[in-house]
């Protein structure tokens, strides 16, 4: 399964978790080409850290456009629910 799809499912299943919020913010930063504090990725549990790295890799390859759109939409919803301080 591709990281973008895994991330989307993870965020949908655990929207209140800090990891889901961090991954959603990462996606928003990637899509908008905004800055993202890399230290936030290091704070993730190892499994989610690896997922973040895979998202970065897939985003760079830009092969999964339809999956990115759905993940970006979900990340926007997360941003509205949980604004970053």
Summarize the structure.
By secondary structure, the chain is an all-alpha fold. It has helices at 3-13, 18-32, 38-42, 46-61, 65-81. It has one domain (3-81).
Question: Could you explain how this protein is built, in words?
Answer:
The protein has 85 residues and is mostly helical. It has one domain. It has helices at 3-13, 18-32, 38-42, 46-61, 65-81. Helix 1 crosses helix 2 (18-32) and helix 1 (3-13) runs parallel beside helix 5 (65-81).
Number of separate helices: 5
Q: Pick out the low-confidence regions.
A: none
Give the number of domains.
1
Please report the distance between the alpha carbons of the first and last residues: 32 Å
Would you tell me the overall average pLDDT?
A: 89
Judged by helices, strands and strand pairing, the structural class is mainly alpha
Number of strands: 0
**In percent, how helical is the residue content?**
over 70%
Q: What is the strand content?
A: under 5%
Using only C-alpha atoms, the radius of gyration works out to: 11 Å
Q: Sketch the major β-sheet.
A: none
Shape: globular
Write the H/E string, N to C: HHHHH
Short descriptors:
85 residues; mainly alpha; 5 helices
Q: SSE layout and pairings?
A:
Layout: H1 3-13, H2 18-32, H3 38-42, H4 46-61, H5 65-81
Helix pairs in contact: 1-2, 1-4, 1-5, 2-4, 2-5
